Amino acid sequence: MKVGDKAPEYLGLNEKGEEIHLSNYRGRKVILYFYPKDSTSGCTAQACNLRDNYDELRRAGYEVIGVSVDSEKSHQKFIEKNNLPFTLIADTDKKLVEEFGVWGEKSMYGRKYMGTFRTTFIINEEGIIERVIGPKEVKTKEHAAQIL
User: How far apart are the first and last CA of the chain?
Assistant: First the structure.
């Protein structure tokens, strides 16, 4: 997915097992952010930065939705532990990460593995992607400021 593309209507199931549709957020911009794993240092820093600036993001017309391939149960713990005010999609079948093109080969300490590239898509009120903040650009501790 790239700037100008129409985002999919169905996004997946959240931490409560509820279906999340883009149309639930009509009239608002959506920050759809993909992150590698619940409760890791970078992902926690990013989620907490969005949490700490959540009211400001909402005032600016944004809704925040996080996505990782972790389970609903993992998301529930992550939300509870960090007091996150937004929903997280449990993309356990990797459908959304593949559709958005953020799933691929990564490497850490010389070991290669498949994982999620930390990427944020800003989707406008009509469901069109208007901005993409790629893996090399995302600053986990200043992510809300990058968006605003």
Answer: 21
